[in-house]
Amino acid sequence: MQSKQIMLPPTLKVISVRDLGPQFVDNKDEMVGQDGAYSIPLNGDTLWFFGDTLIGERIPGESVWYPGGQPVGPDDMSGKNKIKRMINNTGAIVRNKSGRNGITDYEYIYDHNKELKQLVPLLDDEHPDKVRIWCLHGIQMGDRIYLYYVKVHMVAEGPFPVNFALVGSGLAVGTDKDWHFNRIRTGESTIFWNNTEPAFGTTVLRAEEQGFVYVYGVLRGSDGVQRCYIARVREDMLEKRNEYEYLCSDEPRWTTDIRKAVHIFTGPPNEMSVSYNSYLGCYFAIHSLDITGVAVARTAPKPWGPWSEPVPLLTVPTDHPKPMPYPRLIYAAKEHPELAEQDGRVIYFTYIEFEEYFPHLIEVTFA
After folding, report:
1. How far apart are alpha carbons 41 and 48 in whole angstroms?
2. Which tens digits make up the pLDDT trace of 328-362?
3. Cα torsion for 61, 64, 68, 74, to the nearest 10°?
4. Could you give the CA distance from residue 8 to residue 49 in angstroms, rounded to a whole number?
5. Is the backbone peptide bond immediately before 252 cis, with ω within 30 degrees of 0?
6. 171-217, pLDDT tens digit by residue?
7. How far from 213 is each of 50, 66, 301, 356, CA to CA, in Å?
8. What is the pTM of this model?
9. 265, 281 in Cβ contact below 8 A?
10. CB neighbourhood size of 263 (10 A)
């Protein structure tokens, strides 16, 4: 029997890294911080999807998370100190076709009061002091826009100024006509995958296999290790939870039984990106390496792998510049492929530092 040849991904050689600093800082909406920062190509422009968004004013020299020296805790920050509003998820239309000068051509999405709009709203039985809906990735299919999200319960105790427990992940659908998104139900629940299953939606890929969308998700095991999994679903079945299939063998084989799913690599938090990079001739992933302050890249010949070991792209110091009562958080590294140049020889990714609390843009050039 002939042995099966596996095409190994290329070795990444980085020749330059350029820091373009925090983005969306100069805005007309009194937005003083937001995280998440997923980018979803639309018909011509790009939707950037954000997590918690703060509207108001920062107090000079004071941590936004420790007003008066006390942690903000689990409650909604709206109306507290100098924060006018806290919005769980917002969006902006970005028209930049390159990241070389930063994100300069954008406009936030507004509600009927001309304030930043919450794209995936809370339900009537979800109180903003107890529940938040945070952004994951998404995709446009025809005239519909699909946004994956995680639902979390806020908790009072923990190592950080804001702590939470994951409930699960789900899917919302809407259009760019009114930017109104409805959460899709599976049975009586809006949760597609519960907290014992990978939180699928961490990144979405429309790949070479005609008719399929690949959806990645991360689950922290009982051993504390974060593992990444991959599902696939036909383009016309995104809204049907039972139509998702999960990789269960590297041959590859797929199953609708999520209990048989196998992971494709370890180490990512539940925010990352996967794209096809034409310059490298392979699939390309970027993620934070847990909360070490390191942003890494991986390559693979197929969406499911085999994935290379992580190659460091950037290391951000994990020591606070001035004393803080919690570990410095560097998280949410992900690429924005629509900004790439030279077919992907030059790429752009963002990360979030919790005190800075703006998407921080990095340019990477490969050999």
Report:
1. 9
2. 899 999 999 999 999 999 999 999 999 999 999 99
3. -170
4. 33
5. yes
6. 999 999 999 999 999 999 999 999 999 999 999 999 766 789 999 99
7. 22, 42, 17, 34
8. 0.95
9. no
10. 17
**Whole-angstrom distance, CA of residue 360 vs CA of residue 367:** 23
Domains of the chain (ranges plus CATH)?
A: 14-366 (2.115.10.20)
Is the CB of residue 163 less than 8 Å from the CB of residue 331? Answer: no
Strand pairing of 359-366 and 106-108?
A: unpaired
* Structural contact between residues 217 and 261, judged by C-beta atoms closer than 8 angstroms: no
Q: What is the CA radius of gyration of the chain?
A: 20
Angle, alpha carbons 35-39-41 (nearest 5°): 160
How far, in Å, CA of 84 to CA of 107, rounded?
20
Write the CB contacts of 46 (distance below 8 Å, at least 6 apart in sequence).
39, 40, 93, 94, 95, 96, 336, 338
> Residue for token digits 């180490």?
267
> What is the C-alpha to C-alpha distance for residues 215 and 219, in angstroms, rounded to an integer?
14
259: CB partners within 8 A, 6+ apart: none
pLDDT digits (tens, 9 = 90+) for 269-314: 999 999 999 999 999 999 999 888 999 999 999 999 999 999 999 9
Contact present, 254 and 247 (Cβ < 8 Å): yes
**Helix/strand/coil (H, E, C) string of the chain?**
CCCCCCCCCCCCCEEEEEEEEECCCCCCCCEEEECCCEEEECCCCEEEEECCEEEECCCCCCCCCCHHHCCCCCCCCCCECCEEEEECCEEEEECCCCCCCCCCCEEECECCCCCECCCCCCCCCCCCCCEEEEEEEEEEECCEEEEEEEEEEEECCCCCCCEEEEEEEEEEEECCCCCCEEECCECCECCCEECCCCEEEEEEEECCCCCEEEEEEEEECCCCCEEEEEEEEEHHHCCCHHHCEEEEECCCEEECCHHHCCCCEECCCCCEEEEEECCCCEEEEEEECCCCCEEEEEEECCCCCCCCCCEEEEECCCCCCCCCCCCCCEEEEEECHHHCEHHHCEEEEEEEECCCCCEEEEEEEEC
Cβ–Cβ < 8 Å for 153, 164: yes
60, two tokens: 């000079």
